[in-house]
Amino acid sequence: MATASAQHVGTRRGVETRAHARGTLRDHGVWTPYLFLAPYLVLFLVFVLIPAIGAIWMSLHDYDALLGASPFIGLRNYADLFSSTSAVGGFFWQSMLATGKFVLFSVPLLVVLPLLLALVLNKAFPGRTFFRAVFFAPYVLGVAVTGILWRFMLDPGIGIVNFYLTKLGVDTPPAWTNDLPWAWIGLVAMTVWWTIGLNTVIYLAGLQDIPEVLYDAAKTDGAGRWGLFRTVTLPGLRPVLVFVVTITVLASANMFGQSYLVTAGNPGVETRTAIMYIAEVGFEQFRMGTAASMSLVLALFLGVIGIANFAFFRERD
Known about the structure:
Layout: H1 2-29, H2 32-59, H3 76-81, H4 89-121, H5 128-136, H6 143-154, H7 160-167, H8 182-208, H9 212-220, H10 225-236, H11 238-253, H12 257-263, H13 274-284, H14 288-313
């Protein structure tokens, strides 16, 4: 009897211990998602939120890192950007225009060409993996390596491109780094060659997620190649297309290294992009308040473009 009673007590204590453990785990489970999010939240706080708040503060002050005082000037930095008599307003909008041109020239190519390339590389043929690696390989190069490489290729005097054009009988080869529209052509060609592999890989991942049964059903209904692309491939790639367009627009709008290394903003300031001018004002002229206000205006434009992109590609009935 005593042994049975002791076993009953032990069993009850074991049940209570397990119930307590489950309750403790349940209480801790409330915080589990936040623990997984913590690394990202820390990075977001340190590298995005705090710098953004600091940029807003600097844009409202006459901030100079070399001076101790930073007097509050309100919205004067923003007013200067929209003033025709300001020393920075005209140059800033000129750089924004250059940025818009680069986005207009490069984004369609970086959206359409990788898609066509992905459609080819998604087919089964000998050496497919090799060609996938070849097209992606330039993307692993840094902008400094790519910029210096293309600078030597496009140099009007010693560049290999003009050397071979001369051999082919061209009397006056283009000044790829000092004349229009050749400077834009060179910058866009460099960017497409450098980054086409990333968008191609993203498209490939999206194509491989489209169920093959959808293609079979469309073929049964009599769809040809264009019909398969229009009714199956494009709808299946809609989320991927939104992502590709968004990151491509943002990357092109933040172009700096290509112009800085290849054309140095030439001819004149025609290829000096917004990021390039902001860096010049902030780090060469030490006018951090003005640079911060320009950065926030650029960020506002990019935010509007991003929202418009999602609205354009959103699912429709």
